[in-house]
C-alpha cells in the first residue's frame, strides 16, 4: 500500500488544525481546517474534534496526530497544556475508535521537527539540531545527525525561578503584553541555556512566532545560528502525517 496522502492533525492549546498532506513532498493538498480547542480539553472532547475534522475531509484512511505531551507506546504520559485527565490514556485507541480510522499519535513538537528536518530548515544539516516550537508552551525537539531524540521536554526547565515556558513562551508575551524586544530578551535567556546544555549546531524556531521573525530575531544574541522554520505553522500537520506513514510502513513490514 502506498501511503502518499495522509490526514495530518495538530492539537494546539488554542486550536486543532488538520489538512490532507502529500507525505512525499511535505505539502498540504487541502486548506487547513481549524476547530477551537475545547475547554476543558478532555480526552472525549478532543476526540470528538478529531472526528469532526476527519468527517470534514470525508477521510477513511490513516491519520497522524500531533499531541502536546509525551507519548509512550501510544499512551499519554504528560499533559501540561491540556486536561490532566489525559494521563495514562491510550490515545491511539481512543482516536481510532472515534474516527473509525487507523490513528497514530506523536508528540506535537516531535512531529514539527520531523517535518522541518525532512522538508524545511533542517534538511541536510548534520550534527546537533534543536527545534523549538514557540506558542502556548515551548516544545523542544533534538536531532543528532538526523536521528530524533523523542519526547524531549526542555520547555520545562527552571528559568529565573519558574517553568521556562511560563517565563518565555508566546502565550506569556501575549498575557503580560510584553513588547517584542522585552519578550525577545526573555526568550534569549532560554536560548542561551539551551546552548549551555546542548551545544547545538543549529537552532530552528517554529510555532506561531516563526512567521514574525522580523519582529524579534534582531534582538537575539546567541553563539549558535538561529533560523525560522520554513514550514511555519504547517510543520505540525506535515510531521504528524509523516509519523503515520512511518508507523503504517512498520506494520506492513511486520505483517509481510
What does this structure look like?
- There is one protein chain.
- The protein is an alpha/beta fold and 256 residues long.
- It has two domains: 5-110 and 234-255, ATPase, nucleotide binding domain (Nucleotidyltransferase, domain 5, 2-Layer Sandwich), CATH 3.30.420; 124-230, ATPase, nucleotide binding domain (Nucleotidyltransferase, domain 5, 2-Layer Sandwich), CATH 3.30.420.
- 35% of the residues lie in helices and 25% in strands.
- It has eight helices and 15 strands.
- The strands form four sheets. Strands 1, 2, 3, 4, 5 and 8 form a six-stranded mixed beta sheet that branches. The protein has a five-stranded mixed beta sheet with strand order 11-10-9-14-15. A two-stranded antiparallel ribbon has the order 6-7.
- β10 (138-144) and β11 (147-149) form a beta hairpin.
- α1 packs across α2.
- It is globular.
- The relative contact order is 0.17.
- Residues 252-256 have low confidence and may be disordered.
Please state the second-level CATH architecture of the largest domain: 2-Layer Sandwich
Overall tally of domains: 2
Helical amount: 25-40%
Largest sheet: 6 strands, mixed
Q: State the name of the first-level CATH class of the largest domain.
A: Alpha Beta
Number of helices: 8
Low-confidence spans: 252-256
Mean pLDDT: 92
Class derived from helix and strand content: alpha/beta
CATH superfamily of the largest domain: ATPase, nucleotide binding domain
